[in-house]
Model the fold of this input.
Amino acid sequence: MRFDIVARCPTTGARAGILQTAHGPVKTPAFMPVGTQATVKGLLPSDLAPIQPQVILANAYHLALRPGAAMVARRGGLHRFMAWDGPMLTDSGGFQVFSLAARRQLDDQGVTILSHLNGRPRRFTPASVVRIEEQLGADIIMPLDVCLGYPSSRAETEQALERTHAWALKAARAHRRPDQALFAIVQGGTEPDLRVQAARALGSAGFPGYAIGGLSVGEPRALTDELVSLTAAALPDDRPCYLMGVGEPDQLVAYAQLGVDLFDCVLPTRLGRTGMAYTRDGKLNLAKAALRADPGPIDDTCRCATCQHYSRAYLHHLFRAGEPLGARLASIHNVAFLVETLRSFRDSLLARADATSAASSS
Amino acid sequence: MRFDIVARCPTTGARAGILQTAHGPVKTPAFMPVGTQATVKGLLPSDLAPIQPQVILANAYHLALRPGAAMVARRGGLHRFMAWDGPMLTDSGGFQVFSLAARRQLDDQGVTILSHLNGRPRRFTPASVVRIEEQLGADIIMPLDVCLGYPSSRAETEQALERTHAWALKAARAHRRPDQALFAIVQGGTEPDLRVQAARALGSAGFPGYAIGGLSVGEPRALTDELVSLTAAALPDDRPCYLMGVGEPDQLVAYAQLGVDLFDCVLPTRLGRTGMAYTRDGKLNLAKAALRADPGPIDDTCRCATCQHYSRAYLHHLFRAGEPLGARLASIHNVAFLVETLRSFRDSLLARADATSAASSS
Done:
């Protein structure tokens, strides 16, 4: 999988790149909407298309339990199943194994969980997760990793990291489909030296891309900032860097400036369902009384379908009346807002790079 | 408002018509999706547009209580508020007054209800409802009427009918906007002679269209059939006939053959939300286990966006996973199915009429 850095920020670590996948190019930095269950909650590909997200996520763990990866494969794979023909990424479900499974037994070879759906035991190994992801058919696939909560002891963190590292290498040996790129995930909890060590060790193993996992799990923001900064800096500069599960608007920009290329987060649709909408002035509660007759859009600089066609008064009405369209319109806006945050970041980075190169050539 | 009958069935009472409204022509017979709260539940105009519904309904009573008709007027009216630029109809809410209001006091001049939302008293009269509907701005508006449950005594039915008749005439006197057509509603419960009497009395008052109200409220199907038949026959033949709240697929066809031109029903979206989908072989429960891996569409003759892009297996998965997209895709299909039922009925009526006229001219 080819990744070209087409411009770099002269003052920060930010870069604009293009990642080539089997389903088309991905312009980075990019925010990737999350479609855990093979659906970005409440949205159709026809809602997403005008937003132009570069990649859509799904979750191998969830889909393996229901409806089953083999069945999705028989239906033509994930792209066809959900009618999305752009680039996709499947997370392995390492995070879900550790947060959702009713019980789990972890050993060096993998994990046995009792399904959160039916309580039945199910075994996941680095190789079996790669098989599941091959059946699903996303363009970028993530290996099974060991996730920790916050705080965790250094000893726990060391053991989890060791397994995560060994599992990434096992996943790489199991990986067969040349149209899928297997990234590696850097763990290391909140231990700076372990993060750097993991980034260097995996970085030397030649994966086509790297993810920073296990952050935004409750640790203080300053610590997140520090860990992203030193981990991103320790990863190979010529490979895409994906920060998992982080997506507050200000974080996207701050971490893109540290060299992060890909982001995902469930917040835009989760907030949208509760009537919270992003604006350039912070989050807006669409159900609050002050918006009852407000003629303006959610954000008057936004070009999404919601802001083009609907007033805050209409959205307020939908949430007050408990109408499902409210969640959908707010989700469309929130996803578009985050996608656009990084698109405009990328555009201005490219514009500055052009200006710099014009100045130096004259 | 002009209504032209362009073809008649040689063997039944069915006719194909074109009703001219301020927001474009309505080809009848037509099924009108219901958007009570200024939203067809869960669907955007962009979902509806490919289905080409001829008219969308909204409800004056609901919208008067929340968000308020004056506010909708300040936002540019109902069409602009919900971003639908095709023909619209507002029901008066007579049915809701009698089914939803916590308490109501009825007199010859109108009704005082305690709002089902906040318990506050609110007065509705035939003239005030017309004012509300003028503020909302639909193309076709319905007068306040007195609805009864089933069964009701003859005395109750007579009194309700008398008020409904008097209120229709009061609504006509209050009616001002020339771009809105005020229909009259025929009540009369399950008393055949009262239905016919009401149809003739209102029919002679020169309304631009007529509705048959108060049916499908629990009475036996054979009685519904009989009452629709004799009421439709007693109404002026040159005016559109709208059967309120009736929408099982077989009823649409049966009653179109009796000369009914317009139908509405909440069932397609209500059933869709529970995972029930119309097919040519009856209703299908999308959550049932047999569909887990079914590669086919809901109905293989259907041309809706759901059937074009999604398998039963995907829909099954969405309902099993509790994903909101399931309700939306099933609603799109169900609305399309009913709209298409009458569109193809109309097309074959026109085709037969052409064949008849070709045969008689040769």
